[in-house]
Amino acid sequence: MHYRIIHIILLAVALFLAFSASPSIALDVPSQYEQDLLQLINDARENPLIVASSLGMDADRILQNLPDLKDILINGLPPLIFNENLCAAAGAHTQDMLENNYYSHNSLDGRTCDDRIVEKGYDPVVTGESLGMLAFSNFIQPAAAVALIFKNMFRDELDPARTERRNILADDIEEAGIGFGSGTFKIDGSIYNVYLTTCDFAAGTPSVIELELLELINQARENPLAMAESMGLNSDEILGALPELAEILLQGLAPLTFNQNLYSSARNHAVDMINNSYYSITSMDGREVQDRVRENGYDPAQAGEAIRMLVTAGENDYSSEAARICFEKLFRQELSPLCMSRKILNPVFKEVGSSFITVPAGENMGQDRWCSEYNISMLVCDFGLSAADIGLPYLKGRVYTDWDGNGIYSFGEGKGGTGLQIQGPETAFNVYTNPAGGFLAQLETGVNYRIIPLTEGALEERQIEMGTENRSMDFIITPKFQ
Known about the structure:
The protein is of the alpha+beta class. The protein contains 14 helices and 17 strands.
């Protein structure tokens, strides 16, 4: 750990720590102090040198010491958007550190910031976490503590000797959540009053279309025959043609959870195929999916990949329709008796990352094989079972309005931003659906939970007992005109 220690107001001591990790607080609405800290962070992102100067730092020296950050320091970055899920993760971590007297990005049970972010329903591609502590013997106003914590946090980001990830000045994050709390803390054998802060940063959550594809893949696993019927296929014919898959087709499979490393692998492969005008699960340099997922930080016990490409003409953006067609082609292939390697209906896999890219006509970078007058859409799905798969099961679900009345989730039906309270015998926390209507929560095996929608009247609460496998749950809103 890296601590910055300063002395303030008689016996007051301030400690600071910043690293990389995840999202924030146990309460749904940020406190005024959390809002104030987020505003200070955003001020620093938008005008780094002005804010640094206001803190007594030399702007010219900063530019000289940090040439790699010159563009960001001069032009600034967009402000971060508050995210409820990140807020819940940050707040829970702050409370846990206060209750158990530790100060670390890793929870005492070994969870990382990434784990905590995913537990609160956020599907991250990029994460970052900064921790701040102000310990004091004499009373300090919380507003003053916020200012001091931010000052140390930003000074540390501008330290040329810093080796940890920068979070305030990171150009690859878009959202943040903050957990600010107070209590007592034992430091070097002495008890201090403390203000403790967790700042969780994240971005790169897949596009809405990619999130919708995740929900479609899981519905195809959970209820293969219903998905097939929605595509105009006959269930009896499928069962007759695939007797070896009868159990899976009738009972379904556990849902997959999103994995950011698999997503990065899938996206990089999609971009590579488009840029270099080829279409294959084998890269041009001979790498296979196992090689690519390892390069992106995933340690697979098993891995697999499914790809689909669609070429269309016209000037309109048909991204959603193209994604639907690609997915249906993928699933139809899995239901073919000739399919030799199934991915969606493979019970071994537990995680997935799906990337969908559409390149409009005229923008295709590789033109040796593809004519640039056509739109190119590429779907790449990387599936995996981690070699270290020993975690708790997940509840994966959806909240959606069944506009087409077919009883399953379709593109455009997800209801984002819906709050759900998950109540167990000894715990309760909230999660919020992503823009595609999906939610995720890691829960204890063998425990009964109540899932209570926070939107009154629209949805009824549900109950579920978690086993050892991931479980799924849908909250379906019936349109008033039906």
